[in-house]
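hey so i finally got around to running the thing on that chain from the lab meeting. sorry it took forever, my laptop kept dying and i had to restart like 3 times. anyway pasting the input first so we r on the same page abt which one it is
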Amino acid sequence: MQVAARGVTQFSYCLFGGSKENRHSFLRFGSDIPHNPNYRTTRILSVLRAHESEYYLNLTGISLGGQKLEGIRPEMFARRSKDKEGGCVVDLGAPLTVVVQEAYNIIQEAMWSDLQHLNLERVERPEFGLCFRATKAVLGSFKPLSLHSAEEEAVLVFSPEQLFLMMHDKEGPIVCLAMKPGNRTVIGAFQQVDTRFVYDVKDSKLSFASESCIHDTVEVD
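ok and heres what got predicted. didnt touch it at all, straight out
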């Protein structure tokens, strides 16, 4: 990374949500990074090829509402040394989280099954895998989704607000799962909102903690 090459081994950011175009957040370095006693830390994996600029994490499982999803295995998120593909990365440039296809199918099925008692009407949207008509009952029924790392305490939790997008068609409001399937798992920007991420390049660690990120912004003209 260029950051490390300049002698800076720690950097941090905290994304705020909403459409506040008149505010800017900060990329913080070293001693300027806020202390938080609630940081959870996981290891950044070694690179498989020279000049890699992405940080890979050792994701091992996923749970919905505190219940581990059966069928999701650590090898689904492993980097393949043969073709150097797969794995799990954190990427600010990805708008939404992408989950490797096999795990995505399990997540989607578990969420839909969990909401079946509400008799929801499923809606087809070409850009999303799980969409349904929004009702007052369903808006209070979503459960958080948690990503588990090899370190037991390093659990990254996506709140219900980070999991679904509200949109409309001619018949009314629709709710869609704000994730997409792909060839590897990528934690996107929408799911990073209100979480501070701290990268320690020297010690190969990533720490994260919930934070109201709007408080680490300034108003601009």
